[in-house]
Queue: 4 jobs
Job 1
Amino acid sequence: MIARVYGEVVEKFGSSVIVDVNGLGYEIQVAAGDYDATLLNSEVIFYTYHHIREQSQELFGFSSLVAKKLFELLITVQGVGPKAALAILSIGNTEEVRNAIANSDAVYIARASGVGKKTAERVTVDLSDKVGYATKQIGGVAGLH
């Protein structure tokens, strides 16, 4: 499992960045905020979620461990895969998304590309009581910021 990637950003395209780690390039899909904040030829650290399927492998990257843990909670919801979870994290910063879920704001969550009203409602119903609990799971990180 690839848990973290540290290296130099050598390319950016779509919603992905390529990070060179000692000559090996990792393509990492990131949320809009992380994409915008990432500069070419800069050193970065991404906490990664390594998604393995029968016919492909993908890396999803996050600038904070809190964002990664929220992503992992999102993909536990029926109908929310990694790409939909990344789209949800792209509609605002981690704290805004967490607050929307905690306050059952399905309209805010439905703003994510490819996430409909029913899925947004399912996210808020399934996770509204868990977003606070997630802070305990990530050990040492106070709050989902």
Job 2
Amino acid sequence: MERIHSGDSTDDFKCPFPFVVDAVLQRYGSKNANGRIYPEDILKREVQRYQIKINERRALAELNHPSDSTIDLSRVAINVVEMHWEGNTLVGKIEIITSPGFRKYGIISCEGDQTANLLLSGYKIGLSSRGLGTVTSKMGTLYVADDYELVCFDVVSEPSTKNAWIVPDEEIPQEYIYVSENKKNEKQNVLIEKLNNFSDWLTE
């Protein structure tokens, strides 16, 4: 086991309990680092299903990003406790699962301790969704298909979703949250239509 220090001794080591932080989780309608786009209806469906796991306190995930669909409880680091939509960006709160030894003495004995240690030490880490399913290609762009199933959100060093970072002790920066180009275009079209209607009214 590893012991970390905050100051000259472990007596002044501080770790929040429960250790709950904000994070960007996912985003629909925007191409991620893997070249994939999650359609709105598919991702919202899976988020709604995932809410059951949150309600039952089993929205667990690991440190690092294994390829299999089974969550290894010996590697569990976090539990998602809340999530909601901000535009097309899924944001939420996650609890870092720490051991009594880490909270009291700073002794790292599990993946949750390591995750907490990274955050408390000021390192930037993020989240990446793990799921099952296929992709379809449309005009050279990959779209997650209807058979997609969300498994969890793992702690990673390089999230595939842009700006899917964990944000300790502060609100998620607004620049981490944005709407997709399609949504922007929809808003622009609505504005243009309103302006046209107004111009028609003036000339009547």
Job 3
Amino acid sequence: MRVIIEDDYQQMSKKAALLVASQVRLKSDSVLGLATGSTPLGMYDELIKMYERAEIDFSQVTTFNLDEYYQLSPKNPRSYSYYMQDNFFDHVNLHLHNTHIPNGMAEDIEKE
């Protein structure tokens, strides 16, 4: 494992965004595992800025998130689906059919 230490949250967010951007530029159909919570918000902001400056294209990227709250609709502001839409997906050219978040409303949660 490679550990990278930065001086502060802003620098860490920029470095993380640069690493993701480098991967996507290297392989346009990359598969990314994405996180929720407060830590990746700065990285998402940086990636959005790169997209707005036409420095990165997410059109062929596929994403996966591992978590969702059970019995919480994706439209609920507390859900991880909503979080990802609000903080990243709605601001870049990711195709929603290429984003994968567990369905917390699934009838068979074990199968989900």
Job 4
Amino acid sequence: MTWMEDRVTSTDDVSVLIVDDQATFRSTARTVVLLADGFTVTAEAESGEEAVEAAQEVRPDLVLMDINLPGINGIEATRQIVERAPETVVVLMSTYTAADLPADAADCGARSYVHKEDLFPDVLTDVWAQHG
């Protein structure tokens, strides 16, 4: 788990927790978040358990959550995060098409789903505008 302390953030910035077991995708997602005006990365996690712990510790506004994770999966991690902090907006991410998502993705408390290939600054901004 990595906490980001090297960036000074405005109190108005949307704080983001990135959760993915692949370092290359976390790096890509971090770049997307940093390119989106008004967003900042506050922490990263590589497993479901780390995501739940980080969400409790840093209280992010937004969580970008991969579905397939080691340990508890992203759907269960989302359930636990939202149960403890219902104001947290969780967006599930995967390489699945929306039609191929696991059935329990619909009722885990996530507010949206974004295909990993579609994660761009404007998509992040739109998701936050709709659900934040």
